[in-house]
Each structure stands twice: as C-alpha cells, then as structure tokens.
Task: structure prediction
Amino acid sequence: MPSNKNIIGVFDSGLGGLSVFKHFLKKMPQFNYLYLGDNARVPYGNKSREIIYEYTKEAVDFLFTHGADLIIIACNTASAEALRRIQQEYLPKKYPGKKVLGVIRPLAEAAGKNLKSKKVGVIGTKATIGSGVYETEIKKINPQLQVYQLSTPLLVPLIEEGWAHKPETKKILESYLKPLKQKKIETLILGCTHYPFLLKEAREIMGRGYSIPNTGEIIAQSLKDYLMRHPELNIKADKKPSVKFYTTDDIKKFKDLGEKFLGQKMTHIEKIVL
Result:
C-alpha cells in the first residue's frame, strides 16, 4: 500500500471493471489505485437489490479501510441498485467527507448529448435494466430521446469464463441485439462494464451507421474532469504510483484473464474475504 494517501479505489463484481480501469491507468497513471473484484460472487445482475447493496457496502468498507480516499463503483448493477443509498445513507453516517461515484451518469450524458441520435438502445444485466436508471438519466438530459432497454444476462458469465471472443458468445450477442436493430436505434450503450470486452463484436454485428461509445474512455474522462473540479479531495499525483489488486476468488484465474483484459502485467494481487 502507498505510504501516503491519495488513493483511488475501484470496485466491480468481477473482471468487468478492468475495462474502465484500463483507461484510468492510461489517462491518469500518476495516481495510486486499489482495484477490488468480487469474483466469488459475480454476477450481481441476477441478485436482489438488498443483496447488491450489502455486497457494495462491504466493498466500500474494504477499500476505505485500506486507504482509499475516493471510490469508483465500476459496476453498472451496483451503480444502479446501491449507489444512491450508499451516497445518501451510508457515507454521511460512516464516512463523512468521503466520496463514492458510479458509472451510469457519464454514459447517460454521452447518449443524451449526442444530437444525431433519436433512438438509443441500452443493454445490461437484469438488475440494471430492471431499475430503469438509464432511461431516467438519459431523459433528464434529452426528454425527446426514445430509449429501448434490453436485459442480456448471459454475457457476464461468458466474459468471466474467458469466452469473450468465442463464436458462441458472438452468436448470443447477435441474438440479443437483433430486437434493437429492428427498432432502428442509432446509439447503443453498453450498460455493463463487462461488455466493452465485446465492443469489437458489437460493432461488427450492428454494422456501419451505429454509434457504440467506448465506455471506458467516457468514464475515465469524466473522472479526470471530476478530480479537476474537486481539488478539496486532495487526490494528488505520486512520484512512484502503485496499483494493487484484490479478488475474492482464485488469484491465478483473476490474473490470467485480468492481464488479458487489462493488456498489461498485474502484480500485487491478494485474495481477500469480504
């Protein structure tokens, strides 16, 4: 762990958050980071709101007690089902002055501000889609947009198993996206941080003329802007920045797949129990 403070914590139900974290490291390599993947309990998308809240609370506790000053929930399901309650109820009581941010608002803003689109499609887990949060947030920015949401529950387990680029997964994705193509959407939001690992496949299936934003780039830029606007958080560059990874499941599996997703070596990995 870094000797000083200035640590950003990143949490996901598994490996999906690495699609965002990858861009944090690229755009803001000067900071210290802790990444926590709750791989033992992934996926969150088919669990109840109360369980998702409890799991998210445990992750927040772990990261704050291990030195994080700011936490990014790099998980759409936890952002949709637990973030507001964490911000409004849990933080004021237990961690006054600390901040926890989610990933949904930056993506909703990107979709809402795209003036070329009149129809937006969103794919996500059952919990994220069931919450209706994307439609709510997008319509706050542009009430005229038509938003079509679709639950795609098979994708997270396939990605966690390392099947992201297998033909079987592409077939399933193609089947999921067919109704959205029939609706003639112009923009597709990948409403789960696991899904950018299927970005290439999604773009091939949707074809030309469709906008599928790179979610990691959007969220990383949003975090960079947020840190510039909030100097009081005191998140400063470190001369020797460090990155530490935690998983609740098998280290070898986490490392093998994680390095593939992250595109770089992962050192300092520890298995923990939440």
Summary: The chain has a mean pLDDT of 94. DSSP finds twelve helices and nine strands in the chain. Residues 49-65 form the longest helix (17 residues).
